[in-house]
Specification:
Order of helices and strands: EHEEEEEE
Number of strands: 7
CATH class: Mainly Beta
Strand order of the largest sheet: 1-3-2-7
Number of helices: 1
Structural class: alpha+beta
Low-confidence stretches: none
Oligomer: single chain
Helix content: 10-25%
Largest sheet: 4 strands, mixed
Length: about 100
């Protein structure tokens, strides 16, 4: 059975440094983690080359689902670096939509 996400709250990218994140990965399926990594790489390329914004859906330590639309500047296995200079842990990200 598919798990449904709660409705996401839109937040400003400048608000991200004030949030706290859990220690467990929100994605348990390895194929979904691979997809997330692929989308992070794609968001970084599109952000740097075309200043394209990505829509990122993520979870805080309290279980709140949030969504932010911003440019991704860099990423590694642990974090995304966003345009505002904020770091977002990869383990808290449900999905990254590049439009």
């Amino acid at each position: 059975m598919k798990k449904k996400l709660k409705r996401a709250n839109w937040i400003e990218k400048e608000h991200i440094p004030t949030l706290r994140f859990g220690s467990d990965d929100v994605l348990k399926d390895p194929s979904k983690r691979n997809r997330r990594s692929y989308e992070a790489n794609r968001a970084t390329i599109l952000g740097n080359a075309f200043h394209n914004k990505a829509r990122i859906t993520f979870c805080t330590d309290k279980g709140d689902i949030n969504c932010v639309e911003t440019t991704v500047w860099a990423h590694d296995d642990q974090f995304l670096l966003l345009k505002s200079g904020a770091f977002l842990p990869m383990k808290c990200i449900y999905k990254i939509d590049n439009s």
